[in-house]
Design brief:
The structure is a single chain. With 194 residues, the protein is α+β, with helices and mostly antiparallel strands. The chain has one domain: Nucleoside Triphosphate Pyrophosphohydrolase (Alpha-Beta Complex), CATH 3.90.79. Helix content is 22%, strand content 37%. It contains 4 helices and 11 strands; from the N terminus they run αββββαββββαβββα. The strands form 2 sheets. Strands 1, 2, 3, 4, 5, 6, 7 and 8 form an 8-stranded mixed beta sheet that branches. Strands 9-10-11 form a 3-stranded antiparallel beta sheet. The protein is globular, with a radius of gyration of 16 Å. It starts with 5 loop residues before the first helix and ends in a 5-residue tail after the last helix.
Length: 194
């Protein structure tokens, strides 16, 4: 059985988020934000949709990221933030995305608390990239990140504590930092990573 087949991934997601519990963070001076972790479950493959940010954005210029941003006062909740930002950046309407769960919050050295919302797409819709925010969007097989030989890690001090940071090279893209941590958290949650 292929553990990365879409039906298997769906079953693992349902099981992983059945309890609904997660760690929420709060820190003075940090900005609340949300990202969508878009899993594109095609006929035979399970892929992650990632973006490369432009050099015109305020923070994390040129980095590979999930669609997302800061919580606005008008946002109803963290799900609304993640879905709104995805529509603004990639042109994917909220109605096309099935949200399946929320991962633990993550704090970044740049002063953000990120809440990752996991969403599923049954196909990759036509994307309408926001040229101010997104340079390119691309798919990476979920299997790529679970393969022990594809990434490397190093220990760094982040916000006063030692953290293991991961780096993945996929084609011309370097996937690291919070994005890599979120991907690893998802894989651990669904039992694909020790």
């Amino acid at each position: 059985m292929d553990h990365f087949a879409p039906l298997e991934i769906r079953a693992r997601l349902a099981s992983a988020f059945a309890g609904g519990s997660r760690n929420e963070l709060s820190a003075p001076g940090f900005h609340k934000s949300a990202v969508l972790v878009p899993l594109v479950l095609l006929e035979e493959t399970s892929e992650l949709l990632l973006t490369k940010r432009t050099d015109a954005v305020e923070t994390h210029k040129g980095q590979v990221a999930f669609p997302g941003g800061m919580v606005d006062n008008e946002d109803r909740d963290i799900l609304h933030t993640a879905l709104r930002e995805t529509q603004e950046e990639l042109g994917i309407p909220a109605g096309r995305i099935e949200t399946v769960g929320i991962l633990d919050d993550l704090s970044t050295p740049s002063g953000f608390i990120i809440t990752p919302v996991v969403g599923v797409l049954d196909e990759l819709p036509i994307l309408h990239l926001n040229p101010r925010e997104v340079d390119v969007a691309f798919l990476v097989p979920l299997r790529f990140f679970a393969d022990a030989g594809t990434g490397r890690s190093e220990m760094r001090e982040v916000l006063g504590e030692k953290r293991e940071l991961w780096f993945y090279e996929y084609g011309t893209h370097m996937i690291w930092g919070a994005t890599a941590m979120i991907i690893r958290a998802l894989l651990k949650r669904i039992g694909m990573l020790q």
